[in-house]
Amino acid sequence: MFSSIISLYLAGLMVSQPDTAKAAERQDQQTVEQYSEVLSVSTIPKKIQEGNPEIKANAAIVMDMRTGEILWGKNIDEKRQIGSITKLMTALVVLEENGQNEIAKITQNASAMGGSKIWINAGEKLTVQDLIFAALIHSANDAAFALAEFNAQGTIKNFVDKMNKKAQILGLINTHFSNPVGFDGPENYSTVRDLSNLGRYAYRNAFIRYVVSLSGKEIQSIRGTKYHLEATNVLLKKDPRFRGLKTGHTDDAGYSFVGVAEAKNLYPVLIVVLNSPNRFQESIDLLNWVEQHYNW
Fold first, then answer.
1. d(CA 63, CA 257)
2. CA–CA separation, 279 vs 254, rounded Å?
3. CB atoms < 10 A from the CB of 58, how many?
4. What is the pLDDT of residues 208-233, one digit of tens each?
5. What 3-state class would DSSP assign to 135?
6. Which end of the chain is more exposed for a tag (fewer CB within 10 A), N or C?
7. Is the Cβ–Cβ distance between 270 and 258 less than 8 Å?
8. Is 25 helix (H, G, I), strand (E, B) or coil?
9. At what angle do helices 156-169 and 141-151 cross, to 10 degrees?
10. Contact, 222 vs 153, CB < 8 A?
11. Could you say which DSSP state residue 57 is in?
12. DSSP 84
């Protein structure tokens, strides 16, 4: 029975990339309905031991990915800066409206982005797929900004409006975006509860699941310029239980992480830590705590 449930679950994870916004909204509703049917027959996690983890992150959460049940949380509805975790929403909007083989030309604005980047020169052309690789694996600001410009035909405000509309569709009531990269700002924020739901939704996209599982990759522009990508998620090499998802770091956000883990004898869980003194170790600590305190 469990194998059939998992098969159904994985089938529900597959999300296509439609060409229009209306098609994307229809796909949203269909996916939610399919996913709900699978979850209705899912095994409910049972707590077998009392106690709470000792986590110093300002906010944190552990969620069962199949049911959405919160297994543990700290300041789960506190609005905070989220850094490059923002790029998850950027990737979602683009993948639901653009084809992966479409080609984007890098503007001077995108090339000039500060922070983490792969140093793409203005005038270079890359596929949407390769820019997604750069934005999610390497957390490249220049790639994320290029995706937003390409999708919205150069009008970043229009792209940010799409990000916020998508947040509303997904029920992320304490989330708001002001840029596609994750730069600090009073209007770019979320909560660990909302981020766990965003991560849960994003992980249902087959391409995103593949991208965030990679610890490194080489991409190249249309004219052959090569870019080597190194994952900011060190847990992909350090702890094989972790399968993704996205890191974030800015001065105001601190070090943050949204992670998907599949521990032995457990169904997948989603872990979020915001402004942690050691985001990767605390994510491991939370996963170990779940293994000790829950059974499925």
1. 14
2. 9
3. 18
4. 999 999 999 999 999 999 999 999 99
5. helix
6. N
7. yes
8. helix
9. 90
10. no
11. S
12. G
User: Which sequence spans correspond to the domains of the chain?
Assistant: 2-295
Amino acid at 57: A
Token pair for residue 45? 């996690």
Q: What tokens appear for 82 in the block?
A: 């989220």
User: What burial class does residue 288 get, using C-beta atoms within 10 Å of its C-beta: 0-12 exposed, 13-18 middle, 19+ buried?
Assistant: middle
129 SS3 class: helix
pLDDT of 158 over the 60 cut:
yes
* 276 close to 56: Cβ distance less than 8 angstroms: yes
Q: 3-state class of 95 per DSSP? A: helix
Region of residue 203 (phi > 0: left; psi between -120 and 50: alpha; otherwise: beta): alpha
Report how far apart, in Å, the C-alpha atoms of 273 and of each of 1, 50, 71 are.
33, 21, 14
Between strands 242-250 and 226-230, the pairing is unpaired
pLDDT higher than threshold 90 for residue 281: yes
**Averaged pLDDT for residues 255-282:** 93
Q: What whole-number distance in Å separates Cα of residue 96 and Cα of residue 283?
A: 30
The confidence score (pLDDT) of residue 44 equals 75
Q: Side chain identity at 187, as an amino acid letter?
A: E
Backbone angles phi, psi at 200, to 5 degrees: -65, -40
C-alpha dihedral sign at 198, 200, 205, 209: positive
The length of the chain, given as a count of residues? 296
CATH entry 3.40.710.10 includes domain 2-295 = yes
Q: 121: which DSSP letter?
A: P
Under a CB-based contact definition with an 8 Å cutoff, are residues 97 and 24 in contact? yes
**In the structure encoding, which two tokens stand for residue 84, read together?**
């490059």
State both tokens at 191: 């909560």
pTM of the model: 0.85
